[in-house]
Amino acid sequence: MEPEKTFAPDRRSDSASRSSFCSHFWSSALRSKPLNTSSNSGDELVRRLGMFDLILIGVGASIGAGIFVVTGTVARDAGPGVTVSFILAGVSCVLNALCYAELASRFPAVVGGAYLYSYTAFNEITAFLVFMQLMLDYHIGAASIARSLANYLVNLLELIPIFKHHIPDWIGHGGQKFLGETFSINILAPILLIILTIILCRGVGESSIVNSFMTSLKIVIVIIVIIAGSFKVDVANWSPFFPNGVKPVLTGATVVFFAYVGFDAVANSAEESKKPQRNLPIGIMGSLLVCASLYIAVCLVITGMVPYKLLGEDAPLAEAFKAKGMKYISILISIGAVAGLTTTLLVGLYVQSRLYLGLGRDGLLPGVFGKVHSTRHTPLHSQIWVGFVTSILAGLLNVRVLSHILSVGTLTGYSVVAACVVAIRWKNKSRADASARGTAAWMEGTCCLVTIALCGFGAGVCYRYNGSFIILVVAGILAVSALSALYWRQVYGETPGFSCPWVPFVPGICILFNMFLFAQLHVEAWVRFLVLSVVSVGIYAAYGQYHAKPVSSNHTTQYHRSPGEAV
């Protein structure tokens, strides 16, 4: 009897402790961030980015070396119909951009992007999960881009006879591999990352100048390539326009969708943009339209210059010009690729530091990430951390073997942002209607959004593995039913600033297509999503839930206007 008396209180204590932990975890995980708009001139990030700067940030993040490669690669299967692939992907991105534009206008001058929007529309744990998925994409993607940039620079140097065949692999040619395929040493990639990190640490003004110059150079080169190639176009190469049918065109649209990714970087520039309620939507939509125009023009030129079957895989555009006796254009293309990769890398590093800044301010990461330098007005600690992590990855790992697990964060972020547009408009309504009916309506709407996402993923899996057409029809019917329920059974509040049209249909279509694309990713990407989600919940349970401060963080809950900015 005595042992029972001794251990029973311990068991009750352990049970109470577990109950207390679970209660605290859920109460923390389900809280959201309220946002206020006030006027205050004491902002720490300086507002220096105008409308033109924001457009160039979006273009700089979107168009890298891929414009000279992916266009011809997809054209090998889709033929001249690759133009339609880019149009379809562009339309899908426009719908996603409309969602981003509304939220960027609704929460002007606040860092965080997709993380902030999900924190406000849903809850803390969703926001942290979105951040973790995005950040892994950003870190690996930046390391991969740095290696590609190093390779292009070495190729340019080897045009000089004294360097030809004299630059070892460990400097920049892919890297010197060891311990199998996972590790490889690359010296030039980390050096380039350190240089760009120093530029970003000096201030947003200096980094904006570099980005504007390199992006402008890139656009000029692309336009020269388009004009030069247009004189060599043979319209007979455009017939037939769909040589292999429609399916390769649709599949191509899922591939080239990622060529447009980058416009969301504009949303993360909110706290450093002038007149953000006006300029952010213009920057997002303007950069996307510029990119779409350039991609479509390059597609028409490359498929018109040579028959699509003759396009190479590694450098199709350069080989097309060589086939027409215009070898000097290939040098110009290499310079354009260097400029494109530089701006993509620069903007990527910039966006990462601003996301870390947002979480540091909110307490979900250590406070050092939330500090802004008093004179440089940049998140110095966050920027150095981002540069350090990506330099290690680029210098020691063969990040190309990890490329097939990328894009998970991007599609997750885009889907959540689309859902935020709908949920935040409910939230406005639920504030006025705090009854049980308001809560039930919010839960019902959330279930509809999840249903649309699952239908998109299911249809994507069915399409990928050539499943039964009946499954596609059922998924379509369920998605339409969920959209109809969102339209007829929910009440939507008005939104200040830019407003996404046709809510909930535009956000619903975005979620459906994004999850369809998610199903086209490598199976290992799905595993990465699940594993990282579990790890993220563990990190949040151990640290985030105890340190988060969603309400008291004035840095992220107020709109600080710059001196002289019109109200």
Automatic annotation (TrEMBL):
One of its GO terms (molecular function) is amino acid transmembrane transporter activity. Its main location: membrane. Keywords: Membrane, Transmembrane, Transmembrane helix. It comes from the Eukaryota. It is a multi-pass membrane protein. The chain crosses the membrane at residues 54-75, 81-103, 115-136, 183-201, 208-229, 249-270, 282-308, 328-351, 405-426, 438-461, 467-488, 500-519, 525-543. Residues 498-547 form the Cationic amino acid transporter C-terminal domain. The keyword Transmembrane applies. InterPro entries: AA/rel_permease1, CAT_C. GO terms for cellular component: membrane. Pfam families: AA_permease_2, AA_permease_C. It is found in: Membrane. Belongs to the amino acid-polyamine-organocation (APC) superfamily. Cationic amino acid transporter (CAT) (TC 2.A.3.3) family. This is Cationic amino acid transporter C-terminal domain-containing protein. It comes from Kalanchoe fedtschenkoi (Lavender scallops).
